[in-house]
Recover the amino acids of this structure.
């Protein structure tokens, strides 16, 4: 699944996060990109085992993972490049639609379903869904299969200090309205992802996450 060289490249990038270093290691970068493309194709090939809608959708493998360079508006911290990459299995676009993902980052790998970096329009749709059906999300989080797979419930990579303009703090969905994108995740040891057989575990994770994808679809 994930090549050992890919993990080494990402670990080295984390401590050498500058353009001059990246330019000197283009061969390793390109090898990692080929690895990501292959993983994206594998996830789609097995999609019929966790989401028939995804299985029927066409994908563009080279557009199915986050790029290393971080646009200023998406940047977390001061790093120019991402040292962790999300590989998506989506029926739509990862900035517009909920979908499944595998996050590859040395020491912090995980998988689940999410819309973590939504466009402005997608974030507006997400918030409307949260306000219109707060009980639906509550029921989803209470589902025993979902709770077992994702004990942390709903997670985000960026949160606001207060509910956004146009919403009230007393809204039942207020904790989630503060999230700029959200999802669920299950942590995975790096060593597991070195083995091609990890696809069976990923299928189980994605199957458990499919109810969240359908809820926000």
């Amino acid at each position: 699944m994930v090549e050992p060289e890919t993990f080494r490249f990402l670990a080295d990038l984390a401590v050498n996060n500058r353009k001059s270093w990246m330019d000197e290691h283009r061969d390793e970068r390109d090898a990692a990109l080929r690895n990501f493309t292959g993983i994206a194709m594998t996830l789609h090939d097995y999609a019929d085992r966790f989401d028939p809608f995804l299985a029927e959708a066409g994908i563009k493998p080279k557009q199915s993972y986050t790029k290393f360079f971080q646009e200023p508006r998406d940047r977390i911290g001061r790093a120019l490049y991402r040292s962790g990459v999300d590989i998506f299995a989506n029926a739509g676009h990862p900035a517009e639609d909920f979908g499944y993902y595998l996050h590859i980052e040395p020491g912090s790998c995980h998988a689940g379903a999410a819309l973590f970096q939504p466009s402005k329009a997608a974030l507006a749709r997400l918030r409307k869904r949260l306000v219109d059906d707060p009980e639906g999300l509550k029921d989803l989080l209470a589902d025993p299969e979902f709770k077992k797979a994702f004990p942390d419930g709903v997670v985000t990579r960026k949160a606001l200090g207060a509910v956004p303009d146009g919403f009230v703090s007393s809204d039942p969905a207020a904790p989630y309205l503060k999230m700029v994108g959200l999802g669920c995740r299950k942590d995975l040891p790096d060593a597991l992802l070195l083995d091609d057989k990890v696809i069976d575990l990923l299928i189980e994770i994605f199957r458990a996450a499919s109810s969240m994808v359908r809820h926000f679809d």
The mean pLDDT is 92.
